[in-house]
Design goal:
6 helices; 159 residues
Length: 159
């Protein structure tokens, strides 16, 4: 049974790393599942505080994933309408057009939001949408780094 848990946990870690890049898989939560699986085997034991801290990191990261494109929109000069559009586009994209919706949703949401604010300024709308896309890339990078660190702790604990 321990070997099964170790193999399944290892698969979770690899899927979690892939999910950090691919919008269809929730990367860090899958990596965390790998932590839990190996914790219940004889190969590695993590402290309760370690597991709680990583659970909080994964939850916070999951929440931030929706707000980082909005932050990017704001940093690139987007108005409140563009920021709201980015957030709405992110949520709608996840539910209605996965996996590409997670990439295109914030971009299109920010663009449409800016156009509803000022119909004549398409250049500003594109800049705002670009900021949303940069925010998406930043969120992906953060998920990738988080998953890589989780894999590091996993490998260190098992070996």
């Amino acid at each position: 049974m321990d070997l099964f848990l170790l193999i399944t946990a290892s698969i979770c870690m690899l899927l979690g790393l892939a999910g950090s890049i691919l919008p269809i898989l929730p990367g860090p939560p899958i990596c965390y599942a790998g932590f839990l699986l190996v914790h219940f085997s004889s190969y590695a034991q993590f402290s309760n505080s370690f597991l709680i801290i990583w659970a909080l990191v994964v939850i916070i990261l999951g929440i931030l994933e929706y707000y980082i494109p909005t932050w990017g929109t704001k940093k690139f000069g987007g108005t409140k309408a563009g920021q709201r559009g980015s957030l709405i586009g992110t949520i709608a994209g996840v539910f209605f057009f996965p996996p590409l919706g997670l990439i295109l949703g914030p971009f299109l949401g920010a663009y449409i939001g800016e156009l509803t604010h000022d119909k004549d300024d398409t250049k500003k709308a594109l800049r705002s949408a670009w900021g949303s896309f940069i925010g998406f890339l930043a969120g992906t990078f953060i998920k990738l780094i988080t998953s890589a660190v989780m894999i590091y702790f996993f490998v260190r604990a098992v070996i």
